[in-house]
Amino acid sequence: MKKILTLSLFIAVISGCSPLKNANSGATVTASGTLQKLGMSTFQYGTHLLKTENKTYALKSGSINLDTYLDRKVTIKGRKVVGYPVDGGPELIDVTLVKF
Q1: Residue 56 in contact with residue 41, Cβ under 8 Å?
Q2: Structural domain total, the chain
Q3: What gap in Å lies between CA 64 and CA 100, rounded to an integer?
Q4: 23-64: per-residue pLDDT in tens?
Q5: CATH of the domain at 70
Q6: Disulfide: which of 26, 30, 33, 88 matches 79 by Cβ 3.0-4.6 Å?
Q7: The domain containing residue 94 runs over which residues?
Q8: pLDDT (average), residues 7-31
Q9: Could you tell me the end-to-end alpha-carbon distance of the chain, in angstroms, rounded to an integer?
């Protein structure tokens, strides 16, 4: 009986931990459009916006000063942040590369 209980507990722990690995890995995104500063919005995330022909993305970056590219047509590369969009807002991208 103890072996069955121990095995069941072990399987439950392993099963519960698997989604945690995948939750931190967002899909890679490459998009082109005009980079703008985020002003007043109905959603409360990101520092900038990328407006493409079909879609708007919220952007953030810990390694790139996005203000350098304001009002320019750029191509960004980054990873979707897991858990977004929220509040009807756009997808949030953590930008790792900007080309203009």
Answers
A1: no
A2: 1
A3: 14
A4: 446 899 999 999 999 988 888 899 999 999 999 999 999 999
A5: 2.40.50
A6: 26
A7: 28-99
A8: 59
A9: 65
